[in-house]
Amino acid sequence: MAAPVYLGLVHYPIYNKNNEIITTAITNFDIHDIARTARTYDLLKYFIIHPLDSQKALAEEIINYWQDGYGGQYNPDRKEALSIVEVIPDIAAAVEYITARDGAKPLIVTTDARKYANTVSYGRLRREITDTGRPCLLLFGTGWGMENSVMEQFDYILEPIYGPGSYNHLPVRAAAAIILDRLLGETWWEND
């Protein structure tokens, strides 16, 4: 049986294009699109990780509209996707939630466009998720990526995603979809 997998979208501490540490804003697209992708790949929870009360209130207003307001009646599929979204203040709160729910500290994995000493391949992490049963928290940064000392605390950093050309600046929503498919999607290559 596959391990329980969670996703977190981190808004602080994040680098901006000038390499300064900032807090990024929550976007409506990130709430909806990542929730739909996470639900498609059967994740247990999608954490929107943001420390500011004003941004948390904005996200919760959007989520509530699709859970309890007219949005949920109009589009039940969207309601189901957003049912797994939770807004929390920091990464530690996500780890605490998972540890309490699953009885084990999650394997914490993030992504980056660069390689590190603890960079892991998709195949290896896919096997670890499938074979160990240990919960896994996949963290995605916003802006120009998570602050380095935070990333150093994680168990693994997934290898970069490359296209066929030299341009490499995927939106986080697209990166999340590609990565979830590589880690949890059907084994389509075995059917050729």
UniProtKB/TrEMBL annotation:
CDD domains: TM1570-like
SUPFAM superfamilies, alphabetized: alpha/beta knot
Tree of life domain: Bacteria
tRNA (guanine-N(1)-)-methyltransferase C-terminal domain segment(s): 5-185
Name the record gives this protein: tRNA (guanine-N(1)-)-methyltransferase C-terminal domain-containing protein
High-level lineage: Bacteria, Bacillati, Bacillota, Negativicutes, Selenomonadales
